[in-house]
Backbone:
C-alpha cells in the first residue's frame, strides 16, 4: 500500500485520506493479510506488518540549490518517495496487489513495471497530474471511487471505477448518551465552512465545539477567530478517541462544506458513533447521510441566511432520532469491516484477471 508522501499515517490524522489508509491497513491485517505500507517516517508502526519509509530529499549542492528552475521542495520530495517505492517493489516478487492511496501520477505512470496489478483509490475530484497518470497507466490498473458522485466526475478513466465507500472502525463504545451541544469537525479552511456552522449553531441556540487543524491560518484569523466565544470553542486537533468521545456527547454534527465533498468522512464517523448529522447536500454526502441517520439541507441557489435557517431547522429535525438506530444503520453501510470486504473483492478480481 502506497500512502500519501506528504504526512505520516498516525493520529491525529491530517485528513480523510490518511484516516482511510490506516483503517484499511488495520482491517486487512485483522483478516490475516500481510500489509507492507510505504509511508512517511513517523507513521504508526502498528498499522502494517512492514513499514517502508519514504526517503527524504538529499541535500542539494550549492549550485543546484540556486537553480532558477528549482521545483518546490514538496514536488521533489514526492518524486523521491514514489520512485523509491517503485524501485523497492521491483525487488519484491511476493506482492499480489499494489494499492495506491496517493494522489500522485508516478505510481500510475509506472504501473506496467510493477510486479502486481495496481488499484488506485481516487480520494479527490479530478486534477491534471492524476489525469496524466491515468493516461499513462497500463491495462493492469483499476480505480476505486469513494462515492457515485465522485465517480461521475472522473470522466478521464478508461473504464468505470468500482465504488467503495470509506469505512469507520467500530471502537465498541456504543452510541453515547448525546447532549445539548453541537459539534463540527474537519480542516479549518474556507471550503469546509466552519463559519457557516457557527452561525447555524447560534441560530439554533446551541453551543458548538469545533475540532480540527487550522489549514488556512489567514482565513481562520478573519472568518472564524472573531466568532469564537463562550458558546463556540475550538478544541484543536484531537485524537480519534477524544474526538469520538466529544461527538458521542453531542446532540448532532454539523457538516457544512462549500464544495462537493467526494465522500464526507466526518458524517460517516459521526453516525457510526451514534450522533445524527445535519449536512449540506453536497457531493457524496447524499450517499453517506441516509434516512434515519440525519438530514440533508439544500443550499443550491440559496443565500447564506436561508441556509443558516435550514441548518437550524435540521438540528430540530434530528432531535428525536434514536442514537442506537443511527449507529446500527451506519455500521451496516459504513463499517470498516464492510469496506475491507469490498476491497478484498476488488483485489481478488484484479488477481484473477491479471495475465501475469
Residues:
Amino acid at each position: 500500500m502506497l500512502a500519501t508522501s506528504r504526512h505520516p499515517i498516525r493520529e491525529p490524522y491530517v485528513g480523510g485520506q490518511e484516516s482511510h489508509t490506516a483503517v484499511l491497513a488495520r482491517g486487512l491485517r485483522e483478516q490475516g493479510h500481510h500489509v507492507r505500507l510505504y509511508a512517511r517516517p513517523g507513521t504508526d508502526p502498528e498499522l502494517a506488518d512492514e513499514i517502508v519509509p519514504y526517503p527524504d530529499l538529499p541535500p542539494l549542492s550549492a549550485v543546484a540549490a540556486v537553480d532558477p528552475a528549482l521545483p518546490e521542495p514538496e514536488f521533489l520530495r514526492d518524486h523521491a518517495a514514489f520512485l523509491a517505492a517503485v524501485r523497492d517493489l521491483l525487488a519484491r516478487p511476493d506482492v499480489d496487489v499494489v494499492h495506491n492511496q496517493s494522489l500522485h501520477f508516478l505510481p500510475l505512470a509506472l504501473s506496467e513495471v510493477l510486479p502486481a496489478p495496481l488499484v488506485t483509490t481516487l480520494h479527490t475530484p479530478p486534477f491534471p497530474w492524476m489525469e496524466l497518470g491515468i493516461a499513462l497507466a497500463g491495462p493492469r490498473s483499476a480505480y476505486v471511487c469513494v462515492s457515485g458522485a465522485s465517480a461521475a466526475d472522473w470522466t478521464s478513466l478508461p473504464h468505470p471505477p468500482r465504488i467503495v465507500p470509506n469505512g469507520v472502525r467500530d471502537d465498541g463504545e456504543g452510541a453515547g448518551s448525546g447532549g445539548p451541544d453541537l459539534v463540527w469537525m474537519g480542516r479549518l479552511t474556507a471550503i469546509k465552512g466552519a463559519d457557516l456552522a457557527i452561525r447555524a449553531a447560534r441560530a439554533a441556540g446551541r453551543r458548538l465545539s469545533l475540532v480540527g487543524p487550522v489549514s488556512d491560518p489567514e482565513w481562520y484569523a478573519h472568518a472564524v477567530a472573531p466568532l469564537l466565544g463562550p458558546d463556540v470553542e475550538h478544541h484543536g486537533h484531537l485524537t480519534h478517541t477524544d474526538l469520538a468521545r466529544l461527538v458521542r456527547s453531542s446532540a448532532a454534527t454539523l457538516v457544512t462544506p462549500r464544495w462537493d465533498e467526494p465522500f464526507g468522512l466526518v458524517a460517516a464517523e459521526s453516525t457510526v458513533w451514534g450522533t445524527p448529522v445535519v449536512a449540506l447536500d453536497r457531493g457524496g454526502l447524499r450517499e453517506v447521510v441516509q434516512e434515519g441517520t440525519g438530514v440533508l439541507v439544500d443550499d443550491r441557489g440559496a443565500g447564506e441566511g436561508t441556509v443558516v435557517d435550514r441548518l437550524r431547522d435540521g438540528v430540530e429535525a434530528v432531535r428525536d432520532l434514536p442514537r442506537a438506530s443511527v449507529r446500527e444503520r451506519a455500521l451496516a453501510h459504513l463499517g470498516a469491516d464492510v469496506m475491507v470486504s469490498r476491497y478484498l473483492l476488488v483485489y481478488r478480481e484484479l488477481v484473477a484477471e491479471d495475465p501475469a
The first strand starts at residue 36 and ends at 39. The chain has two domains: 16-167+335-353, 182-334. The chain has a mean pLDDT of 95. The domain at 16-167+335-353 is CATH 3.40.50.2000 (Rossmann fold).
